[in-house]
Design brief:
Layout lengths: L2 H11 L4 H13 L6 H10 L4 H9 L7 H15 L1
Helix pairs in contact: 2-5, 3-5
Protein name: FAD assembly factor SdhE
Pfam family, one: Sdh5
Main location: cytoplasm
Length: 82
């Protein structure tokens, strides 16, 4: 991934909720480069969701309907615990 693309993705991880900033930014720094391309695309698409939806997904209050994205969300949650 180019430096410019990574910078843009970091910027998209910045949200209105500090908690989401920390969850998404931590995942981006720790795990993003090691996940398969399909999951990278799912993560990038996930960032188009609203903050309330993202928060519910990350807390596990609501499952994401797409199984690949749901797997990425599980990885985001695991990265937060590491």
């Amino acid at each position: 991934m180019s430096k410019h693309s990574l910078h843009r993705l970091r910027w998209r991880c910045r949200r209105g909720l500090l908690e989401l900033d920390l969850l998404l930014g931590n995942f981006l720094e720790i795990s993003y480069e090691s996940i398969p391309d399909e999951e990278k695309r799912a993560f990038e698409t996930l960032l188009y969701h609203s903050d309330p939806d993202l928060w519910r997904y990350c807390l596990g209050e609501e499952p994401h309907p797409d199984p690949v994205t749901a797997n990425v969300i599980a990885k985001i949650r695991r990265a937060a615990l590491s």
